[in-house]
Model the fold of this input.
Amino acid sequence: MGWIAVDLDGTLAHYDGWKGIDHIGEPIPMMVDRVKGWIAEGKEVRIFTARVHPNQDGRKLEEVRYWIQKWCLTHLGTELAITHEKDFAMEHLWDDRCIQVIPNTGKRADGKG
Done:
C-alpha cells in the first residue's frame, strides 16, 4: 500500500516566510479537510517537508518534529509521519512548488513551456 505526501508550508499550513521552528502557520481548510478525508479512508498520509532535512542550519530535528507533530495533533487530530524523502511507494505529492510533467516526456502537464 502506498502513501500520500503533503507539503507543510504553503500547502497544508499558511506560509509567509520563515519565523522559526516553533512557528507553523494557520491551517489551510481545504487541504486539512482533504487530509482528514484520506485518513478516514484508511490512507497513509505523511508530511513532506524540507524542515526535517538533516543538513539544515543547525536546527535540532527532534525539536522540529515536535512542533510539526503538535500542529498535526491540533489541526488534524492525529500525528502523521514526517519525511523529506520520497520512495517508490509514494503515490502522489501535494505541494505548492511543484510543476507536474507528463511521464516520460519532460513536457509540463499544464501546457506551459
Q: What stands out?
A: The longest strand covers residues 3-7. The two ends are 34 Å apart (CA to CA).
